[in-house]
Specification:
By secondary structure, the protein is α+β, with helices and mostly antiparallel strands. It folds into 4 domains: 69 residues, no CATH class; 38 residues; 42 residues; 32 residues. It is built from 9 helices and 6 strands, in the order E-E-E-E-H-E-E-H-H-H-H-H-H-H-H. The strands form 3 sheets. The protein has a two-stranded antiparallel sheet. The longest helix has 13 residues. The radius of gyration is 24 Å and the shape is elongated. The model has no long low-confidence stretch (mean pLDDT 79).
């Protein structure tokens, strides 16, 4: 193996040629495009199952020391998600901690009956969204501000009985005035509107 076990205290540095792929060293010439850390793990510890992942616990980019990796399989992932949730971590915090996406973390929590299948706002996000709704801002802007989908904001608006008549009038004016439509299309990253 192309490894230097003494260059950095505690770390094993991969010395072979690599290309970095999503923050992981992938040896050049490895036909299976396996990470260098996986190759070393399999050499030192043993084979990994197809769904197993190695999570890095070290900040040194080229470190491949198996002691600086954590084996993450489906059952271990579930355990870590549940432990973090019980400790009060948010879905975003858990996703960052376990190295998986929010969607997967939410799926686990829903399967365990700890979250409903619907998205809910935290108390702080709900308060902020309510404030912005009262100010008459568009749903899309509010959704971006509180980092939730536009449907969540629309449901909140409906539950609060707040109509956004002014914004509806602006949207109609944009659709029917060619000058406003051109300005809207120039500055809006969303789909174009026509007049």
């Amino acid at each position: 193996m192309n490894v230097d076990k003494e260059a950095v205290p505690g770390c094993w540095l991969w010395l072979g040629p690599v290309r970095m792929q999503q923050g992981h060293a992938v040896p050049i010439g490895d036909r299976n495009r396996r990470q260098a850390a996986r190759l070393v793990w399999e050499e030192e510890i043993g084979a990994l199952a197809p769904g197993d992942k190695l999570r890095k616990t070290c900040t040194v980019d080229l470190c491949v020391n198996p002691a600086h990796r954590r084996l993450m399989n489906a059952s271990r992932l579930r355990e870590e998600v549940l432990e973090a949730f019980a400790a009060g971590a948010t879905v975003d915090e858990i996703a960052k901690e376990v190295g998986r996406g929010r969607k997967r973390v939410r799926e686990i929590l829903v399967e365990e009956g700890l979250l409903s299948g619907r998205v809910t706002l935290t108390a702080a996000a709900r308060q902020r969204a309510a404030q912005l709704l009262a100010e008459g801002l568009p749903d899309r802007w509010i959704a971006e501000d509180v980092k939730h989908g536009i449907d969540v904001i629309r449901k909140l608006r409906a539950s609060m009985g707040i109509a956004n008549k002014d914004w509806v009038r602006v949207q109609l004016a944009v659709r029917h005035d060619p000058t406003l439509a051109a300005l809207h299309n120039l500055f809006n990253p969303g789909p174009a509107v026509g007049g």
